[in-house]
């Protein structure tokens, strides 16, 4: 865009740089249908001189203004309420804790008839999961089930990696959801979140102060944001679940420290996993590392058993806790610490899903699906040779 020249404006406004009468307009602002005020310049020289600071309005204003001007979006995109059971054209009122706001969400995405679906896909209600005895008893997986979990978790990893490669300033979280949805069905899988207790999308995208369960919507990612993408795939009758938090463009040092600390919390927790270890020790390790860095641990959401069920026993808190039970060979569960820059307390948006920090400060999360082995742990959702290099601390 640097090389473009400004185009002739219809009537006179003031130059966005020097205030003189302006007859020229930034072509990118015209393309985005941004307001003429702030897009007008008196000369090519003023336009060039203003470019480095001016260009950021193309992303920022696109979020706030252009959206409301588009008829297509007004017709087909609505705000989510009541856990996904209601849509509304008006942004709901709420005592927002930070600067992030919900945006409208797109229509539901379709999964081909040939793909095997979990029992909530049609009506939004899981039927086997809540009444299963595996809510209280931790399953020891058979070798066949372990092999299917390996396959599913590998697909989930590849799907998350596809999303990671796509992330940059200006993309909407709905477009990330589209990447996740298409990559999942291309692999023959079903995106487990889709219609799970009415969740309206195929993955969770949690930006800045969102702790977890953010709903992909029309908001464009901005330079400096952090965004967690949480992918779960259902394939060959089992679920695989993982998430990572990514940097969007240039992120401030404190947010980088938060994301790295959260990554380390998960790594430290994984390192203790082996037969005979108490489930409660996971939270002790995570709480210690987060506290030492001056961060806090979310209490409302925990790691969980996983397999033919999306969520089952054991429940694994990431904070100091009294959970009972020992790890055994053949168990499969997730660890998924959510770490806050400020206080640990969470609140829920009017959509019934989006968990945000109560103080509006940022939150990060990482998640893996883990198998307890004879001697330790197998990270079923572990990074692949092909995984993109998105974390500076992993590049040697
Ligand atoms: N993937 C999330 C987890 O780690 C659960 C998402 S459920 C949804 O447990 F409905 F919000 F998608
Ligand atoms: Co999980
Ligand atoms: Co998850």
Mind explaining what this structure looks like?
The protein is of the alpha+beta class and 396 residues long. The chain has two domains: 1-54, no CATH class; 133-394, Creatinase/methionine aminopeptidase superfamily (Creatine Amidinohydrolase). Helix content is 28%, strand content 21%. It contains nine helices and 20 strands. It has helices at residues 27-31, 44-54, 57-69, 71-76, 128-131, 143-166, 173-186, 253-271, 280-292; strands at residues 7-14, 21-25, 40-41, 79-81, 86-88, 190-191, 204-207, 210-212, 226-235, 238-247, 296-297, 303-305, 312-316, 332-335, 338-340, 346-348, 355-357, 363-365, 368-372, 377-379. Strands 6, 7, 9 and 10 form a four-stranded antiparallel β-sheet that branches. Strands 1-2-3 form a three-stranded antiparallel β-sheet. A three-stranded antiparallel β-sheet has the order 8-17-16, with no helix packed on it. Strand 16 and strand 17 form a beta hairpin. Helix 6 runs antiparallel to helix 7 (173-186). The chain is globular. The structure holds 2-amino-4-trifluoromethylsulfanyl-butyric acid and cobalt (II) ion (2 copies). It catalyses: Release of N-terminal amino acids, preferentially methionine, from peptides and arylamides. Keywords: Aminopeptidase, Cytoplasm, Hydrolase, Metal-binding, Protease, Zinc, Zinc-finger. Belongs to the peptidase M24A family. Methionine aminopeptidase type 1 subfamily. It is found in: Cytoplasm. GO terms for molecular function: initiator methionyl aminopeptidase activity; metalloaminopeptidase activity; zinc ion binding.
């Amino acid at each position: 865009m640097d090389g473009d020249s400004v185009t002739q404006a219809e009537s006179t406004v003031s130059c966005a740089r020097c205030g003189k009468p302006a007859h020229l307009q930034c072509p990118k602002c015209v393309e985005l249908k941004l307001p003429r005020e702030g897009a007008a310049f008196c000369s090519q020289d003023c336009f060039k001189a203003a470019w480095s600071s001016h260009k950021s309005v193309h992303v920022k204003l696109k979020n706030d203004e252009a959206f409301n001007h588009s008829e297509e979006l007004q017709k087909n995109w609505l705000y989510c309420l009541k856990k996904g059971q209601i849509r509304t054209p008006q942004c709901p009122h709420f005592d927002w804790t930070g600067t992030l706001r919900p945006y409208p969400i797109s229509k539901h995405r379709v999964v081909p008839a040939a793909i095997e679906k979990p029992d909530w896909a049609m009506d939004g209600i899981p039927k086997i999961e809540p009444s299963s005895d595996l809510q209280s008893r931790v399953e020891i997986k058979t070798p066949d089930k372990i092999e299917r979990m390996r396959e599913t978790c590998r697909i989930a990893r590849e799907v998350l990696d596809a999303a990671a490669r796509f992330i940059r300033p200006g993309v909407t979280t709905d477009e990330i959801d589209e990447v996740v949805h298409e990559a999942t069905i291309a692999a023959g899988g079903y995106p487990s979140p889709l219609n799970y207790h009415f969740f309206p999308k195929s993955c969770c995208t949690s930006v800045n102060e969102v702790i977890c369960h953010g709903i992909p919507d029309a908001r464009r990612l901005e330079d400096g944001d952090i965004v967690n993408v949480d992918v779960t795939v259902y394939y060959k009758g089992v679920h695989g679940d993982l998430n990572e938090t990514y940097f969007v463009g240039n992120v401030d040092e404190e947010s980088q420290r938060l994301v790295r600390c959260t990554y380390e919390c998960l790594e430290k927790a994984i390192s203790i996993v082996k037969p005979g270890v108490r489930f409660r020790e996971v939270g002790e390790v995570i709480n210690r590392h987060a506290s030492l860095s001056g961060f806090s641990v979310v209490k409302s959401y925990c790691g969980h058993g996983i397999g033919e069920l999306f969520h089952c026993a054991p429940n694994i808190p990431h904070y100091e806790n009294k959970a009972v039970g020992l790890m055994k060979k053949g168990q499969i569960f997730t660890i998924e610490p959510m770490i806050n820059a400020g206080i640990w307390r969470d609140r829920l948006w009017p959509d019934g899903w989006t968990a945000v920090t109560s103080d509006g400060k940022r939150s990060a999360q990482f998640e893996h699906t883990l198998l307890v082995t004879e001697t330790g742990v197998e990270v079923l959702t572990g990074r692949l040779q092909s995984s993109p290099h998105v974390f500076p601390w992993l590049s040697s």
